[in-house]
Design brief:
The structure holds 2 protein chains of 2 kinds. Chain A is of the alpha/beta class. Chain A folds into 2 domains: 171 residues, 3-Layer(aba) Sandwich (Rossmann fold), CATH 3.40.50; 119 residues, TPP-binding domain (Rossmann fold). Chain A contains 8 helices and 16 strands. Chain A has a 7-stranded parallel sheet, sandwiched between helices. Chain A has a 5-stranded parallel sheet with strand order 13-12-14-15-16. In chain A, strands 6-7-8 form a 3-stranded antiparallel sheet, with no helix packed on it. The longest helix of chain A is centred in the last third of the chain and has 17 residues. The termini of chain A are far apart. In chain B, 29% of the residues lie in helices and 29% in strands. Chain B contains 6 helices and 13 strands. The relative contact order of chain B is 0.17. The chains are: A alpha/beta, B alpha/beta. At the A-B interface, helix 3, helix 4, strand 5, strand 7 and strand 8 of A face helix 3, helix 4, strand 7, strand 8 and strand 9 of B. Strand 11 of chain A pairs antiparallel with strand 9 of chain B, so a sheet runs across the interface.
Chain lengths: 326, 259
């Protein structure tokens, strides 16, 4: 439908939308009730996945299903999405911040000749003007931006927006528009899986544990992983720890790493350098444990314990276990 | 092989930023400017490609006011052969798309086989210019690359991009554009010889008219900047470790409802 708010589906590559889509659909529904359409580019969508999008409140699913759409390549996705956008004339195009959606949204905006607000953390709709809020300058300031014309393209930071409530039994009609899948210039070679830690992914996790220079060495992260397993948290690291070679770069939280916004952040031996804060300061509850009472992280922490992390972590693991076993 | 690297000059992370009286920009007084860290990975990778192939040219390009010359000079000191400075007041309010259009026009004039960019600039963190350049040039593009290798003929590049849960490897025919992720390499420090040599290297000033640039309003504009709302004051939990930890767990469960 014209003037719809599109939500570009991020899926698990196995036919199901990721739960971050509840947040994207939730925010779009708040801004444009009844006009939210899920647009899904995939090689295979599952019935359960389509049902899920309806239950989150999408009024319609536009399903572009084609073998050439996986693995994701911007040139193929953008050609297909732009062709559909020309027919459908959406008002807004929202996507969650993920590695591929950041590229896709930017390239699509260029194709459509419109503005992009990446990594947005808030929206305000006033008549026919949408204003997005996004952190800038290492999260030290917030920038409010607006578009010269529609469609308004934006990516949304995960864990910031209130997810749509699941409405059991609500279904969305599925349309399967035909669009040309353009021939790709780039050819897929292989996918190399990371060694799985068995813990949640950093940017998606609701609880994140982070270990800094105070961890003293790579061998000590096992105590954080143990705690992570008890409370279902991802385990990351500060730049100091990554640059020291204790953890691979994919675990780095901060300006030159991942930006996270969990419900609960627990920092151990993290000093709280500006560049780390840039990647985690939108966390809802911040806990800091550090021997140094002057560590800057205490300035933004909701709860702090000034003590040796090697005493605190095992104790905390024990206490959480007691609490969660109840 | 000619390689072009796009760089942006940004405030140093540790620099205090203050909102200017216009409410939309930052006050430049007292700001320390640096080359955006991700762009340094791009510069380093371009230099390594040239060194490995034993020939080629690396050109650094940046858009911005006069102060940007300093950033270009650091790229020259690292080893870039020459630099292009897109320096025109019409670009003062350029959004990512206008920036990409100006850069794309310069790239078309230069005709490189490869363009390397940083994943995102650490001032506005938009991370859009690489993808937008790819679109405007009609080139294949790989984001967040952790490794790359150009084939012996210089016809294609194999790039591994970081995605959630792993790396995805693609072959991209050249010309192509890549966005550098941290972990791609360790950027070199300029040597004294490099710094001295950089003074003699060319930084060419390019005006909008030189690119046949038609003035157009930005598609995205800044309404205003604001300081972060202050976080509510935190609480240091005192006491011996077992007592403090018990209290923390209680507070997280009952007061903050975070677990």
């Amino acid at each position: 439908m014209p003037n719809a708010f599109w939500c570009i589906v991020e899926d698990d590559r196995n036919g199901s939308p990721k739960k971050v889509m509840a947040e994207v659909i939730g925010e779009a529904s708040r801004l444009a009730p009844g006009r939210v359409e899920a647009v899904w580019l995939t090689d295979k969508a599952s019935e359960a996945g389509l049902k899920q999008l309806g239950e989150w409140g999408a009024a319609k699913v536009l399903l572009l299903e084609h073998a050439a759409l996986a693995p994701y390549r911007s040139e193929v996705w953008v050609a297909a999405a732009a062709e559909l956008a020309a027919k459908e004339a959406p008002k807004a195009i929202f996507a969650p911040v993920t590695s591929r959606q950041r590229e896709f949204a930017a390239r699509l905006a260029a194709r459509l000749g419109v503005g992009l607000a990446a990594d947005s953390v808030g929206f305000a709709l006033d008549g026919d003007t949408l204003v997005a809020t996004r952190p800038v300058y290492a999260g030290k300031l917030l920038s409010r931006v607006t578009w010269a014309k529609a469609p308004w393209v934006a990516t949304l930071r995960p864990n910031v927006f209130r997810p749509a409530d699941t409405q059991p039994g609500k279904t969305a009609p599925v349309e399967r528009p035909t669009v040309a899948a353009a021939g790709a210039q780039m050819q897929f070679v292989e996918r190399r899986e990371e060694v799985s830690t068995g813990l949640p992914e950093l940017t998606e996790a609701e609880t994140v544990i982070s270990g800094g220079r105070g961890m003293k060495g790579p061998e000590n992260y096992v105590i954080l992983e143990e705690l992570g397993r008890v409370i279902g948290a991802a385990v990351g690291a500060s730049r100091a720890a990554v640059d020291a070679g204790w953890r691979p770069h994919r675990f780095q939280i901060g300006q030159t790493g991942r930006t996270i916004s969990p419900k609960l952040y627990l920092g151990f031996g993290v000093s709280g350098a500006i560049q780390h804060l840039a990647g985690m300061r939108t966390s809802k509850v911040i806990v800091a444990v550090n021997k140094d009472p002057e560590a800057p992280i205490f300035k933004i922490a909701d709860f702090g314990i000034v003590a040796d992390l090697f005493e605190v972590v095992p104790e905390l693991t024990k206490e959480f276990k007691k609490l969660l076993d109840k | 092989m000619k390689i072009l690297v796009t760089v942006k000059q940004v405030p140093d992370t540790a620099t205090q930023v203050k909102i200017a009286p216009d409410g939309k920009t930052i006050d430049p007084t007292g700001i320390t400017w640096i080359v955006s860290p991700y762009d340094e990975f791009a510069v380093e990778e371009a230099l390594r490609i040239k060194e490995k192939r034993g020939q080629g040219e690396v050109v650094a390009v940046s858009l911005g006011p006069d102060r940007v010359k300093e950033a270009l000079r650091s790229c020259l000191a690292m080893g870039c052969d020459r630099a292009i400075h897109l320096n025109d007041p019409v670009w003062a309010t350029a959004d990512t798309l206008a920036t990409a259009k100006a850069l794309a026009a310069a790239i078309k004039q230069e005709g490189p086989q490869l363009v390397l960019c940083g994943r995102q600039a650490i001032d506005d963190d938009m991370g859009a210019v690489t993808a937008q350049l790819a679109e405007l040039l009609g080139w294949p593009c790989a984001y967040w690359i952790m490794e790359e290798a150009i084939d012996a003929d210089g016809k294609s590049v194999r790039a591994a991009r970081q995605v959630e849960g792993g790396l995805e490897v693609f072959d991209l025919p050249l010309p192509a554009i890549l966005a550098a992720q941290k972990g791609l390499n360790e950027p070199r420090y300029p040597t004294l010889k490099g710094i001295m040599g950089a003074k003699k290297k060319e930084i060419r000033d390019v005006k909008a008219a030189d690119l046949g640039w038609a003035s157009e309003p930005p598609q995205l504009s800044i309404v205003g900047l604001q300081a972060l709302p202050p976080r509510p004051p935190g609480r240091i939990i005192a006491g011996d470790v077992p007592t403090a930890v018990k209290e923390l767990v209680r507070a997280l469960r009952e007061d903050a409802k975070a677990i």
